[in-house]
Amino acid sequence: MFDDLADLYQQVILDHSKSPRNFHRLDPADRTAEGTNPLCGDNITVFLRMDGARIKELSFQGSGCAISKASASIMTESLQGRTLTEVKGLFDQVHDMVTTGKSPASDMGKLAVFAGVHRFPARVKCAILPWHAVLAALEGQVNPVTTE
Amino acid sequence: MSTGNSTAEPLPPVRDLSALRADFPILNQAVNGHPLVYLDNAATSQKPVAVIEAMDRYYRCDNANVHRGIHELSNRATATMENSRARAARFLNAARSSEVVFTRGTTESINLVAATWGADNLRPGDQILLTEMEHHSNLVPWQLVARRTGAELVFLPVTGDEGLLDLARLDALLTPRVRLFALTHVSNTLGTVNPVAELCERARKVGAVSLVDAAQSAGHLPLDVQAIGCDFLACSGHKLCGPTGIGLLYGRQEQLEAMPPWQGGGEMISSVDFHESRWNVVPHKFEAGTPNIAGSVGLHAAFDYLDAIGRQRIFQHDQELAGYAYERLTTLSGTRVFGPRTGRSGVVSFLLDDVHAHDLVTAADQFGVALRGGHHCNQPLMRKLGVPSTARASFYFYNTRAEVDRLIEVLREIRRFFGG
Asked: Which residues in chain B have Cβ-Cβ distances shorter than 8 Å to A35?
């Protein structure tokens, strides 16, 4: 009965949504950006500390559904030490995976748990929201980004 | 011969509401392997066969462009459209057909008034009184016109989770500076039914014009614009068993006549010169371009369908189901239910433990239960309630107590799944 649901909400996702990692404000932060999903009212702010071109520390705050929260939490774990180019590369793979369900070319680690999202088109935005925010922060955008 | 529904006989009285489910083929299907339980009626209602067939018949037999035409089909189409207008006037108990303007829906109706009446009548320092429970469609058009005219928005507050208007504040807010009081009849989030007749009268006493957003009420309870005493009333066809893309603006004759036209084009003029034009009479002045003729046919059939059931009966049924859902939801541990305990319409917003509304709605869909989750186009109200979003079940006459039971059963499963 729960098969499809369990495919979307894998244990790792439920765990990260209930106990999100790096769920705090970084003060001071070198970069910060806010992402909102007007459809569901999700709102996530990411905070970055940089070491040159690389992300040294990454955290987030905000409110959202289990998918967006878990996506932000797992994303913060996955992006430590990465550059903008590397983050963009990962974003493309995650985006591909959650929209088409295509298996990623490289090993994506924990990020692979979001593969089930592609069967729930309304929820793609939730998974992608924190990624938009982190890219905006890295690219130095001032205005909040939205998924609409 | 015309096969339009303009000559339709009154339908026989309906004895058993659950028998009406057979009129809605869409309800008879499985979604994600479970029988569909459609509880998203505040977003849009389903359409009975009578409406679908009326539109189908119109396109098969009577379709042509309205007015201006001289040939038989055009005459039929014109008569059909104007019959629908007369039927709409009866549905709202408007004094005259000319007080009914066809629009795309509630949103367009309100925008029409904001763009014409608002632009002509609002001056810097004037106030537009709204309530804190307005749908974005009865908020944003006023923000736009306020920005253009220098008028200012003021809000009648909503109190607590019960979600009633704070009428004790009305005297202080409804001053002679208020030129327009625009408010919803039934809240799409809280289910609150506002005392619109009383409020429109209070507006009239200070010389303010009143507009009622009847999107959530028109298909659900008896509506009488003369008894309400409003200057304007807006509603949508698709929420009352009619098709999408058509709705109504009711406006008192003298208001409509004093207003400038809205969009320019064919049909809204009486004569056109290269440099200026003269406007057509009300309501045609507000209906530029080819109207949604087939939509008006579907709307006509929807009015006939609803009135055969009786809107008082529909309201009673909505209230019974909402009351039952409210009672069962509040006894389910970990739920927070919004809106008034009694006297509500068939809309129930709730939260379940700390399961986010979107997760809840996705999960319910896996069990075939169609809900809505989000801010319901009520972002300021959500902020006031201190929640980012809610889940919402909304009922209509074809919903049953068994469907409420199924909703509760599914919510228990969902709570179990998310480990609540």
From this structure: none
> What would the two tokens of residue B264 be?
């320019």
Intervals of CATH 3.40.640.10 along chain B: 58-308
Q: Which two tokens stand for residue B334?
A: 């970990």
Instruction: Note down pLDDT in tens along chain A; length 148 residues.
Output: 577 788 889 999 999 999 999 999 999 999 999 999 877 678 899 999 999 999 999 999 998 999 999 999 999 999 999 999 999 999 999 999 999 988 777 778 899 999 989 989 889 999 999 999 999 999 986 566 766 5
In the numeric block, which tokens belong to residue B207? 């010389």
Percent of chain A with pLDDT over 70: 92
Residues 6+ apart with CB under 8 A from A46: A32, A33, A35, A58, A59, A60, A72, A76, A130, A133, A134, A137
- Which secondary-structure segment (H or E) carries B391? strand B390-394
Q: What CATH number is associated with residue A137? A: 3.90.1010.10
Exposed, middle or buried by CB within 10 Å (0-12, 13-18, 19+), for B352?
Answer: buried
Q: Does A64 contact B at CB distance below 8 Å? A: yes
Q: Tell me the C-alpha distance between B395 and B372, whole Å.
A: 12
A18 with B362: Cβ contact below 8 A: no
Tell me phi and psi for residue B241, to 5 degrees: 80, 0
For CATH 3.90.1150.10, the residue range(s) in chain B are 14-43+310-417
Which residue segment(s) compose the domain that A55 sits in?
Answer: 3-146
Q: Is the peptide bond before B283 cis (omega within 30 degrees of 0)?
A: yes
Both structure tokens of B95:
């004094």
Closest CA to B306 of B246, B188, B221: B221
Residue B230 appears among annotated catalytic residues = no
Which CATH class for the B58-308 domain?
alpha beta
Determine contact: B283 vs chain A, CB below 8 A: no
CB B417, CB B363: distance < 8 Å: yes
Which residues of A are less than 8 Å from B363 in CB distance?
5
The ipTM (two decimal places) reads 0.87
- The domain B14-43+310-417 having CATH identifier 3.90.1150.10: the answer here is yes
Long-range CB contacts (within 8 A, 24+) of B265-270 = B265/B289, B266/B68, B266/B290, B267/B66, B267/B67, B267/B68, B267/B291
B135 and B214 in contact (C-beta within 8 Å)?
no
